[in-house]
């Protein structure tokens, strides 16, 4: 809400200003209507529940969570609109890639774009007419980054939003009754979100009321259950990477920077002045600027340029995941699909199964209709009127499936548009390797069980590794350390388990040395530096260049490829030896990569815990290449037996509670780290039988 300074002091003023730029400022009636007829009432009751607890804490100050005592702050009441006005916790998609692509094109020409990310369907990014890529400053998104950043307290650690946006994903699948041992569908889901902070990003709950019985996980800031079941229908989700953001570049009037050029005329910047309360100081006033396309995030006074972010967050119905209120009462696929028609953000694949035996998926999210020559959302565009959004495609225009012929459906943020499909929601997708491995494992188990889905979620075989390692295996070297590295990787089966010695070398090699070396082999120094600094490298491009070396490296490309491997592999070997010792036989991937859930104020943390997997494995782990701490992972997982609901399983790490005094603050961490789960009970009899604590709420 842009109110951190009121509690934490003047050093948070600029983050507050940035946050206020991206608050929803539109029609609240249209906003509430977007989430269904119960939305405003649900948000009101949700806020009242929070406020009731805050009032109870006022009467029982000894129960106030310790963080508030540390900060000297009494928690404030919520308003219903607080639930929907904040947009910046939603997943953003390609904004950072637009800027990186513009910088690379500036430094190395239009062809440099091919080295950044693979595009699907096949496509070549073109520089929009009127855009000078060199006009885009390297720090153009600094205000946007502040607006979308988590709160970082003194002595605390926060996840960077750009890392989260670039690496967040999910796995989900629905297996039809013809492929299961019981004849009932199975639905599994494991969202991939921040795995380095407390509390967990999902909250498990059961909501029972007349006509409603929901079990599963929701977002702590939202009412309802987004992932789970209602006793008839089961639902999971993965991120559908719809391109919902664009960077606009404006020419300012050199004589008056309060105006920008639009369709041949000077149009005034809309200015809003807001007063920001500041703890320990006088309130400060900050000016917010907006163009017709969105909030201004940078002005280059010298170049007479302004830059604004256009995003679906300004549209009604784009509060993250609140659209789940529209499908929580569905009883069949038709009702579920109808409930998804107004889903706005983030772009999502909703995976479906029900007790009738139906499975399927429904994609949804506001998908801009871009108009203008070569306007594909891959580069910034001039804001002079040549490049516009002409409304949005209806969610019904996106290609879903109902009872697919394969007998199952799986989603892993992969490119899933049918060939020639007319609506292209995005060109930049997550790589296909998790989806390919999921398909392999499901197809290998025709009589699938819930336990089989749990095993799939634990799988740590990297199909990136199985394609890269053969190129290493074919080489030899007279250098002793390089020869040891080749020998170690030659025996690597691609399974990035905690105990794997080859995985320790392989992961260090590809993330710290191979991709950077590849970039600097193919691009001029400055452009390669930009590419090397991007998050989540596209290893499908590296694999393609190794497979077709002349097309990438030029004449004698195979020799250049082999030199790249032999130059970078010993660097990784020496790096790992410096951390784990000189004897590779004693190396362990879990000796490097670890999970640690950091308390926002610095302690108490949970971990460190040795961790396996990588970003290409079904059991995912995106780690920071300098610290090896897991940044993104699957902290919440579920596998539902659709119809025998009490046979379902789940996990939520490191625990249900965010209160360090609670026994449930960290009690699930070890179970999660070992790949375990607990029964996700929903029948009243089983819940009562396993009851731990009963809290009775009495209206006053």
UniProtKB/TrEMBL annotation:
The lineage of its organism: Bacteria, Bacillati, Actinomycetota, Actinomycetes, Pseudonocardiales. Belongs to the peptidase S45 family. One of its GO terms (biological process) is antibiotic biosynthetic process. It comes from Amycolatopsis jiangsuensis. It is an enzyme of class 3 (hydrolase). GO terms for molecular function: metal ion binding; penicillin amidase activity. It comes from the Bacteria. Pfam families: Penicil_amidase (PF01804). Ca(2+) binds at residues 243, 246. This is Penicillin amidase.
């Amino acid at each position: 809400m842009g109110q951190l300074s009121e509690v934490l002091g003047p050093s948070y003023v600029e983050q507050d200003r940035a946050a206020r730029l991206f608050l929803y400022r539109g029609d609240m009636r249209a906003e509430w209507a977007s989430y269904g007829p119960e939305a405003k009432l649900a948000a009101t009751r949700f806020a009242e529940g929070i406020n009731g607890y805050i009032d109870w804490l006022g009467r029982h100050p000894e129960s106030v969570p310790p963080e508030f005592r540390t900060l000297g702050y009494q928690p404030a009441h919520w308003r219903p609109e607080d639930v929907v006005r904040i947009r910046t916790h939603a997943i953003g998609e390609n904004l950072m890639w637009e800027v990186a692509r513009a910088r690379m094109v500036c430094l190395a020409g239009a062809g440099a774009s091919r080295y950044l990310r693979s595009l699907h369907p096949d496509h070549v990014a073109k520089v929009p007419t009127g855009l000078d890529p060199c006009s885009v400053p390297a720090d153009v998104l600094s205000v946007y980054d502040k607006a979308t950043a988590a709160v970082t307290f003194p002595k605390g650690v926060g996840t960077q939003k750009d890392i989260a946006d670039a690496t967040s994903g999910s796995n989900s699948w629905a297996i039809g009754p013809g492929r299961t041992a019981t004849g009932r569908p199975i639905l599994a889901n494991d969202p991939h979100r921040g795995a380095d902070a407390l509390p967990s990003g999902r909250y498990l709950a059961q909501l029972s009321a007349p006509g409603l019985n929901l079990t599963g996980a929701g977002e702590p800031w939202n009412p309802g259950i987004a992932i789970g079941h209602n006793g008839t229908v089961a639902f999971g989700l993965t991120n559908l990477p719809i391109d919902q953001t664009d960077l606009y570049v404006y020419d300012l009037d050199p004589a008056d920077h309060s105006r920008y050029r639009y369709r041949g005329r000077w149009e005034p910047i809309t200015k809003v002045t807001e007063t920001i309360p500041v703890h320990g100081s006088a309130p400060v006033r900050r000016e917010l600027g907006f163009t017709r396309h969105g909030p201004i995030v940078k002005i280059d006074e010298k170049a007479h340029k302004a830059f604004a972010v256009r995003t679906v967050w300004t549209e009604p119905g784009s509060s993250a995941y609140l659209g789940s209120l529209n499908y929580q009462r569905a009883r069949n696929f038709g009702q579920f699909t109808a409930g998804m028609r107004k889903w706005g953000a983030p772009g999502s694949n909703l995976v479906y199964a029900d007790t009738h035996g139906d499975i399927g998926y429904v994609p949804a999210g506001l998908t801009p209709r871009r108009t203008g020559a070569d306007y594909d959302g891959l580069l910034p565009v001039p804001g002079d009127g040549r490049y516009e959004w002409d409304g949005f495609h209806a969610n019904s225009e996106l290609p879903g499936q109902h009872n697919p012929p394969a007998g199952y459906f799986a989603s892993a943020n992969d490119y899933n548009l049918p060939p020639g499909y007319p609506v292209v929601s995005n060109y930049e997708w997550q790589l296909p390797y998790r989806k390919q491995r999921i398909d392999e494992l499901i197809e290998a188990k025709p009589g699938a069980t819930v336990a089989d889905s749990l095993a799939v979620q634990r799988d740590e075989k990297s199909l990136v590794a199985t394609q890269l390692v053969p190129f290493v295996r074919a080489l030899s070297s007279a250098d002793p350390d390089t020869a040891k590295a080749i020998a170690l990787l030659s025996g690597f089966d691609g399974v990035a388990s905690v105990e794997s010695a080859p995985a320790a070398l392989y992961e260090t090699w590809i993330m710290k040395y191979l991709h950077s070396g590849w970039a600097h082999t193919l691009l001029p120094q400055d452009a390669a530096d930009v590419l090397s600094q991007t998050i989540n490298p596209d290893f499908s491009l590296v694999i393609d260049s190794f497979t077709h070396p002349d097309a990438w490296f030029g004449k004698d490309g195979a020799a250049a490829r082999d030199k790249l491997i032999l130059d970078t592999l010993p660097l990784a070997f020496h790096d790992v030896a410096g951390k784990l010792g000189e004897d590779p036989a004693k190396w362990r991937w879990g000796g490097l990569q670890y999970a640690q859930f950091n308390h926002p104020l610095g302690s108490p943390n949970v971990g460190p815990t040795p961790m396996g997997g990588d970003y290409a494995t079904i059991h995912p782990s995106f780690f920071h290449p300098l610290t090896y701490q897991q940044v993104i992972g699957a902290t919440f997982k579920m596998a539902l037996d659709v119809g025998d609901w009490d046979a379902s399983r789940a996990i939520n790490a490191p625990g249900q509670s965010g209160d360090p005094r609670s026994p449930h603050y960290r009690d699930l961490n070890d179970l999660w780290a070992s790949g375990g789960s607990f029964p996700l009970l929903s029948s009243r009899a089983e819940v009562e039988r396993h009851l731990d604590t009963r809290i009775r709420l009495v209206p006053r």
